[in-house]
Amino acid sequence: MCLIIAVCSAFWEYRTGSRFRAYLPWEMFISSNAQTGAIQMAALKFFSYVILLNTVVPISLYISIEFIHFLQSKWIDWDMRMYYEPSNIQAQARTASLNEELGQIQYIFSDKTGTLTQNVMTFKKCSIRGKLYGDVGSDKSYVRQDSHFVWNDRNLIDAIEQNNDDDINHFFILLALCHTVMTEEMDGKITYQAQSPDENALVTAARAFGFEFMSRTQSSITGRFRNQVQTFDLLNILDFNNYRKRMSVIIQNQGKIILYCKGADSVIKQRLASSESDIMAVTDDHLHKVATEGLRTLCLAWKELNEGEYRKWAKQLKLATTSMQNREEQIDKLYEDIEKNMKLLGMTAIEDKLQDGVPECIEKLTRAQIKIWMLTGDKIETAENVGYSCRLLTNEMMIHKIDVDTEDEVANALERFRVDIEKMNRPQSYSLLITGSALLHALSDGLKLTFLELSTQCKAVICCRVTPLQKAQVVELIMKNQQVITLAIGDGANDVSMIQKAHIGVGISGQEGRQAVLASDYSIGQFRYLERLLLVHGRWSYIRISKFLRYFFYKNFAFTFCQFWFAFYCGFSAQTIFDPFFVTTYNIFFTTCPVLVLGVLDQDISANHSISRPHLYTAGQKDQYFNRKVFIECATHGLITSCIIFFFSYLCLCFTTLPSGTPVTDVQSFGFMVATILVIVVNTENAIEMWYWSGIYIFILFGTITLHFIFHFIMYSTALRLNLKINYAYVGVAQICLGNLTFWLTLILICAILILPAIAREFFRMRFMPNETDRARLIQKFCVRGKKNAVTPMDRELRQRTASVRSTSSGYAFSQEKGFGAMITSGTLRTKSTEKTHSS
Predict the structure, then answer these.
(1) Which residues are annotated as a binding site?
(2) What's this model's pTM, rounded to 2 decimal places?
(3) Which CATH number fits domain 120-353: 1.10.8.60, 3.40.1110.10, 3.40.50.1450, 3.40.50.170?
């Protein structure tokens, strides 16, 4: 616009302005040459109109958006439907600038333990030297010391009471000693502070069976076994990490040095003595059996060490820990050397139940065309079973697994997967399960695009045994190549990198502290609240901010184009058609409040209807409400509005005279008429845009229009001029115009020309071309129940779960962070109330 005005100004100054310099003199620094002076004047007019027409994007736009963002975030904070009463946790928006992106999510990356599951572990079954316990139901429940622990198999209780099986003793002593749990005395009772819920469950179970861990120092562990207090010398803690997948302790008692080890079945198998193959085969069957139930498992082993052999190994370990080169590698090698030829004790099976509402939440998010990827540190079998339980996987899906270790094998597996997909007409019926070792190669430069192409065609993807770094790399791969809005959700410190990498991070306040919450943009108490966060608050926020921007640009284009048209009637002098006070207050008093209410309170359908119709969420994913096309339509609408208001007002006033015969053709009256009609039209357009008319909105809408008349009546009154002694050009304009019949007839005519077509357009669209939102609003308004569609394969896979053959491999339960062994043996961590605990 400024460029057009500058060009037109150059022609006008050259042909007309240069001849009237006696009346409209040029500045002293302007050349007297008509052609050169016209160009110089045009350049000055360009910058003058840059200042005058800056109302297209005023500063109030930024302030209004921030105000809307703030209140939208408060709706999340105040939503009691997302309040988790058991933990007294309220949903919290930790940022106010991402609310509308919650309505545009296309990928969700979720942790499993503590996010989809409760992270409250329960000891359910165990296998000791080939005999499975906990698999037999009984009318009598065994409860001891811990009222939360229930055991229904009397056979194990009888075996412990008989005290004639050393393997059972070693099994529970291992559970009581092989860990990094700290104790704390509260109300005369020992409580456990464990690094992970898995360890807490194992130590609690051992206590319930009569093998109680009581306290520890940096060099000893004390326990009460069969009502006898025993203290063991703690020689070493061979700590857990993501590569070892196991932990061990070396203790000494009554002259015997014993190594206890627990870890994943895959690594324990490799370190057993050859004589244990038969027992391992039986235990494998038990592992497979409990894995079908989705239980998390650990294998337990032990060995007695020769004192001379141990002293030699301990000396080497001491040298390795003080080495300045390759310290970690040397330590790991020594750990490997001593953790060999062990004797299998058995396995444990821990249940981690799904959180309430997780399957229903995932079902609705899937129907909203959101792809959900599970990124977990558990084994592929455990993740698969949980995937079925939470309806991320269904029986109609073709599940493809990639569990290989080399780059060539991964490339071959991906190529076979591509062939399978090409044979199927429905690639969305596939799901992909990939392990961390295979993902390491799949994310390499040579294979990551192939992996991206295939994985994005799948309906569900589960990445197992992945590290925190790999979680962040997967999120980054999708963000950089797919150009979609992503969300990551987790509850622990190992999810922080993923949460920070995604566009939006959601933290769950769970059992693993608040690291994820502190790193997140939004925090909730349970995974199921993600449904309401996205389908209600996210969707509403996106619609509101889109309609706000759409209307805001429309009203400002209409306002600015009026100035643009007036430039052709004022010799491009940068004179404003409006009163300067009106220019200042247009975006503050006369149009802002209704659009703010639209951006804060508007809603197409209620929250319950939004949740029950997840398919409406796709509008945000496709950016239907505000895009380049919508912006052009807003600008065009504003252009047409300004044309009709300006030129119709001009034509109506050209030949208007007062009863006294005085013509009403002054620029002040013209400007007041244009301003009044503009305020009424744009606010009425706002009312048409508004779906949810409340008492507050109606009051603000009519109050804004009334304020315009009151403001100008006072500003243009003669009393103000007399009292303040101000010679103001607009004094008396309001009284003259408002008392003129032509003014009111022109106002009614222009409003009818602009508003009636808008109403007719909306009526025609909703009557003959309704979209999904229109249908949903109609159903809500008239309580019409939508007809049930024919059952499709998609419906069946979301509603039905038929019997299926699942993987029978075991899951692996353990903390995914490095343990506290080094801190315990160095004395950094100490048990509270140790002496008092011993005396008890």
Answers:
(1) 111-113, 199, 240, 262, 296, 376-378, 465, 471, 491, 494-495
(2) 0.78
(3) 3.40.1110.10
